[in-house]
UniProtKB/TrEMBL annotation, chains A, B:
Coiled coil: none annotated. Residues 8-62 form the HTH lacI-type domain. Keywords: DNA-binding, Transcription, Transcription regulation. InterPro entries: HTH_LacI (IPR000843), Lambda_DNA-bd_dom_sf (IPR010982), Peripla_BP/Lac1_sug-bd_dom (IPR001761), Peripla_BP_I (IPR028082). It comes from Cognatishimia maritima. This is Transcriptional regulator, LacI family.
DNA sequence: TTGTACGCGTTATCAC
DNA sequence: GTGATAACGCGTACAA
């Protein structure tokens, strides 16, 4: 029996093919630098022994790991999962694999994960949003690890970004809502602490109201976790208050779904008694009844472009441009004119 | 300026602390084997230099990478994403990171990913389902890589499993459906090729029908991709046929959501004109209208248990037991008695 | 075109 | 308790 202990090494292949390890290495990494005859012999040995290179050794010698890291808040949110899948597909094509960490929206955990990824020698890192300690960016720069921030966009961020303007997107949606005639607005936002995307969306709403001359205290603002029940709870509180809003904007589609469910539990009709809007346009938005007016975000494209932006940096490009993705409002049944109010 | 070229190494720390690299290494990996005084000195040097170990080097020397690989069909499906998140959380606690690959339901791609993971020296691998070439299992065994299969369960599979009995779960649901009085059954299953979970579910339905003495040709069976539109299309075809079923079972909740949407587009009431059931009990199931009768699967627990099962193997446990998770039927409004038929 | 030999940063096995 | 030092598997100047 052959020993089934350890995988064959470069040296085993070299011996089998009657060449040096250097030649084998070249065959694998830069085939044209070796003459056809020997190359064939080497290749034969390679797949006869079932040789596969040891990545750790390769990483150490070549100082590249063919691995990309990503730190996202959570994969439980379909939008992160979806973009991450697109990101990963694109990387796989280029021979990279994805090392994932999740922060659970905790800045400290994120920082840890980033250091861990760097220690593991990843060739690049995908982050969500810009907001984090400057030290982290220093750290990344010092270690020469290419980085890209997604779900956000700025031409002059600390690292290139691939995303959209959260402020503008939400401002547009709010303007549209106002044009329907709504005056009392509720907004169940995502938690804004350490979350520039959520912050941008809140600012967008406020800006739209200001532009329309609606007093700031007409806005009922709450921050919620990104889940169904949080949406439901805040919806109930808002609607139970003395002067309930005629429309409730939500920080994302999941919160909106929670609001919608609560509405039906309270016997409120949407959009008859109250309009509801979301953000992201996940599949969910089309499935619930009534269908959700929301902001479409090209998640797949974001993942793909983020991957390409990162690969460009890895390949040595100097000034990689940030990518600004367009969002658009998708009007569906959940938004309508407010009914006359007392 | 300090040189910002490369990260500090063990040797730098050793020099700074006035000890040998061996001592530094011990301080980090097995602190009690070094006296307090020196340990303090070393630790001070460590975080003064901002030292973080190089994983590639560590992997090579220690023959463990503190990395776990996973190959799943796709993260776009919330159920995989969800369990993967739980899996990852559990691993992170033990100091491991997750290297993910996705197969897009393609056996060849999966095989590639597995080899890639092994070449990268992962300490363990998570796979979905049992069905794949025996060679793959040989390969994994030969390389001594602990493996666990999830979303499926068997006491004597090629590797330990953490999951549930797909056959039994679907059989139970079908029995429940039959007990409502349904006779003409439609089943929009997932693609069964290379997918033992989908196959198990189909067999479960067939077994239940057989046990109830319902002729096999009363079952209208279709295979669909796991997405909304596929569910919609097959639903329409089934309902447009001469003798439409009174209930349509679906291979998962997403397909069911598609069916439901199509029903409303066709002006069919659920469950008035036709009942619909799903599988997985994702959040979706409670949000759509009517709420979906489905099979609850403990995805989070599955991810967690899979992680622990894998870690046990890595820690050298000999006969790690497979974990059988319980599913249960969740009755909601989408299932009711069939209305009298002509 | 091909081979030699060193270095990459750790861990682990020895002595001391 | 601590310090040399030999692996670990590969890439790559440099030499031939």
């Amino acid at each position: 029996m052959a020993k089934s202990q350890s995988a064959p090494t470069l040296e085993d292949v070299a011996k089998a093919a009657g060449v040096s390890t250097a030649t084998v290495s070249r065959c694998l990494n830069d085939p044209n630098r070796v003459i056809e005859a020997t190359r064939k012999r080497v290749m034969a040995a390679v797949d006869q022994l079932g040789y596969t290179p040891n990545f750790a050794a390769r990483a150490m010698a070549a100082k590249r790991s063919l691995t990309i890291g990503a730190v996202i808040p959570t994969m439980n949110n379909a939008i992160f999962a979806r973009a991450l899948q697109a990101f990963q597909d694109q990387l796989a094509q280029a021979g990279y694999m994805l090392l994932v960490g999740s922060s659970a929206y905790d800045p400290v955990a994120e920082r840890e994960q980033i250091r861990n990824l760097v220690a593991r020698g990843v060739d690049g890192i995908l982050l969500v949003g810009f907001e984090r300690e400057p030290e982290t960016y220093d750290y990344l720069k010092r270690h020469g690890v290419p980085t890209v921030a997604a779900w956000t966009y700025s031409e002059d961020g600390p690292v290139p970004s691939v995303g959209f303007d959260n402020h503008l997107a939400m401002q547009s949606l709010t303007e549209a809502v106002l044009s329907y005639g709504h005056q009392r607005i509720g907004f169940i936002a995502g938690k804004t602490e350490g979350n520039d995307r959520a912050k941008g969306r809140v600012d967008g709403v406020i800006a739209a109201l200001a532009a329309a001359g609606i007093p700031r205290d007409q806005l009922i603002l709450r921050e919620a976790d990104y889940d169904i029940s949080a949406g439901a709870i805040h919806f109930r509180e808002m609607m139970d208050a003395p002067h309930p809003p005629t429309v409730i904007l939500c920080g994302n589609d999941v919160i909106a779904a929670g609001a919608m469910r609560q509405a039906s539990r309270m016997g409120l009709s949407v959009p008859g008694d109250v309009s509801i809007t979301g953000f992201d346009d996940m599949e969910l938005a089309q499935i619930i009844t009534p269908a959700l007016t929301t902001v479409y975000v090209p998640h797949d494209e974001m993942g793909q472009r983020a991957a390409r932006t990162l690969l460009q940096q890895i390949e040595g490009a100097e000034d990689v441009a940030s990518v600004k993705l367009a969002t658009k409002i998708v009007f569906r049944a959940s938004l309508a004119k407010p009914t006359s109010v007392p």
